[in-house]
Amino acid sequence: MMNFEPTLFVVDDDEAMRRSLKWLLETLRLPLQTFDSAEAFLEGYRGEPGVLILDVRMPGMSGLELLERLAESHPSLPAILLTAHGDVPMAVRAMRAGAFDFVQKPYNGQALLERVQAATGEARHRHQRQGERDSAAARLESLTPRECEVLELVAAGEPNKRIARELGISLRTVEVHRHNLMEKLDAHTVGNVIRLYLSATKGIP
Amino acid sequence: MITRASFLRVPLLIGLLTLLFASSVVAAEVRIGVLAYRGVEQAVETWGGTVEYLRRTLPGHEFRLLPLEFIALDAALSAGELDFVLTNPGNYVQLEAAYGISRIATVESRITDDPNYSIGSAVVVRRDNQALQELDDLKDRSLLAVDRGAFGGYQVAEASLRAAGVEPEDLRLRFIGFPMDRVAHAVAAGEADAGILRACLLERMVAEGQLPPGELRVLAPQNHYGFRCAASTPLYPDWPFAKARHTSRELAKRVTQALFALESDEAPAAFTGWTIPVDYQPVHDLFHRLELPPYSRDSQMTPVEMVRRYWPWLLGLLLSALWVVWHTARVEQQVRVRTAQLSAANEQLKQAMQEQAAAERVIRQREAELAHAARVNTVGELAAGMAHEVNQPLAAIGNYAEGCLVRLRQKEAAPELIDALREIDTQAARAGAIVHRLRSFLRKEEPRPVPIDLNDAVIEAVSLFAPEAHRHGVALQTVLAPSLPRVCGESIQLEQVVLNLMRNAVEVLEEAECERREIEVISARVADGVRVTVMDSGPGLSEEARQHLFEPFFTTKPQGMGLGLSISRSIIEAHGGGLAVADAPNGGAALEFTLPVAEDDDEL
């Protein structure tokens, strides 16, 4: 989990572009896969963490359509869209569709590398948070229903007295539940508990 | 001297002769005029054999016998119409003096042993008219003769009558005209007391059964040794065969030789053959005595008298000459007019052709300019796709270059870089090719058709259009005939047409929002040339669209001027081909054009 390598996914119908992007992006020493169409990518992609480098204009499914498709199934895959210079409406649509970044052709190779590196950072970050979210969710799973009720009220910032009154239990019982759930969630402070709860339930970091 | 009837016939005859002459200049004809004193039939019967003989003997010439009376003979000679003349000795002497004809032979007659004594006159009376015994008995009697110009038929008799003391004024003399036979018949019928016949005519008429024997008798017959007919007068030489002045000596010589060679058994009944010309001096003496031309006192006629006497003749000549002059002038005038008309027409034609050529040049120029403007417009509309197309290799070059830089910084092995640098080169060439293609498409040049392979134009157009198709997510496919005969045309304009057809197809697909977006460009050899078809997978064309498709500014698209197809059709028609709508097998629309094969390239 700690030493994962994001994969670079290059999707471009132009062979010269695919090969030259491969040549350039190989210098980042990351796993790299190329696809000649959006359809081919959807077929081969198994949800691996990584960065999508995507040509906007392709026959069949366009880059934007792919992006919109991925927003539902794999929202954590940052995408860099390659667009034609001056195609502002396309850039706007790309960002709205959840693109991490867009690069206008012709571009500076150095700039593209920097964007891709930024995206891989984001990918790592997203992956990490996804991991945290996943473990938080798993930990929440281990709570009893009563502990969950107590956690919701703690996360809402209610003091123990109010929680006890709300749930119709004794203050002591609230304190026991609170201790147990902090143990289960491996959270040492109330702040940690709140963050974990939010990340697991609302996806907020 | 001239009868009334002859008077009227003269001008007509001369005109006729002129026409005859005009119509027969080409044939090498030898014309023999013969005095037809007994009529045309008799003349042909008497002399036809000789002419036939000449025709046979001298095959190089077309001998023709022209039976004529005095006046006509005279006129024909004066018009130079005759090459030879056969006439009586009296007439001969006159014509010799007047036209310089000269005898080349004298006929040998069966009626006499000596051609020097052959022609005389017989004054005939009815046998029962016993009152007439001598020539001077004819005083105050009615006497018929054929013509004042007749030799045996009058002149010889006149001389004898004068010698006998009978002047013409003492006679009731009447000339009744040819043929001479009429004189004999008239006397026999009692219409006159006597008649003058050429000697031997009476005997011949009796022999021919035209007169009953014994009906007429010859007055005061003289005894002539060797002469087989009765005559009232002395005898004169026989008919000469004379050449006209203009007739060549060579021809005259050959005719003479032929005449002399005529065997007696080949000759007709009337004479036995031809001999050397005899002396016609006795005839001259006779004419001298009679004061007849050329010895007449009035032979030196005053012009006034000449005009008075010969006016119909002169008039005929004058008319004839006038006709020739008029005709010549008219022909020349016509030639001039027609020549002028022709050269004017030619000039007009040349000018019209030049104007048309210039107009066509202007039209071609305009069309080329319009086509160019349309190409500029097209490139503008294709700009986005073109930019993308140029961007691809540029971006690829950027990628390779940056990749190389990074590797160099990381001190990586050089061999790897070589491949990348090679790729850079390739991609630069690719970008260059696109720019080049675009430039040639925008090239503006003089329309100059050359034989081209339509496949090349299709490939070029498809390359140019591919980015645009790509941009619209349209799959572009080509199905090209492996080899095509060349067509004559301007490649850029034909490229433009193919490109326009593809643009149209893409617009149709865009409009119809089709799931399947495909365009197929097909080239094929067909019966009437080479065909290029652009087919789309769209819904096909509506009836309205089909009708108006090629009209300028007709468009179903919100963007676009609607000029593409109209210009395409102009281009194809200027190339001698046709652009038409067809049905695609997949239900879509198909636009296709056919161009005739270049003339020198039909080997496929």
Descriptive report:
The complex is a heterodimer of chains A (205) and B (604). With 205 residues, chain A is α/β, with parallel strands linked by helices. Chain A folds into 2 domains: 7-130, Rossmann fold (3-Layer(aba) Sandwich), CATH 3.40.50.2300; 142-201, Orthogonal Bundle (Arc Repressor Mutant, subunit A). In chain A, 57% of the residues lie in helices and 13% in strands. Chain A has a 5-stranded parallel sheet with strand order 2-1-3-4-5, with helices on both faces. In chain A, strand 3 (50-55), helix 3 and strand 4 form a beta-alpha-beta unit. In chain A, helix 6 (145-155) crosses helix 9 (190-201) and helix 7 crosses helix 8. Chain A is elongated, with a radius of gyration of 22 Å. In chain A, 34% of the residues are buried. With 604 residues, chain B is of the alpha/beta class. Chain B has 3 domains: 4-115 and 237-300, D-Maltodextrin-Binding Protein, domain 2; 121-218, 3-Layer(aba) Sandwich (D-Maltodextrin-Binding Protein, domain 2); 449-604, Histidine kinase-like ATPase, C-terminal domain (Heat Shock Protein 90), CATH 3.30.565.10. Helices cover 50% and strands 16% of the residues of chain B. Chain B is built from 16 helices and 18 strands. Chain B has helices at residues 4-23, 40-57, 70-78, 89-99, 151-163, 181-188, 201-207, 249-261, 281-290, 303-381, 383-409, 414-442, 454-471, 491-512, 543-548, 564-574, and strands spanning 29-35, 62-68, 84-86, 102-109, 121-126, 142-145, 172-175, 194-198, 216-218, 240-243, 271-275, 450-452, 475-479, 487-489, 518-526, 529-536, 578-583, 589-595. The longest helix of chain B has 79 residues, at 303-381. The radius of gyration of chain B is 54 Å and the shape is rod-shaped. The model of chain B is unreliable at 1-8 and 19-27 (pLDDT under 50). Classes of the chains: A alpha/beta (205), B alpha/beta (604). The A-B interface holds A 13-14, 16-17, 19-21, 23-24, 26-27, 57-60, 62, 82, 84-85, 105-110, 112-113 and B 384, 387-388, 391-403, 405-407, 410, 420, 423, 426-427, 430, 470-471, 473-475.
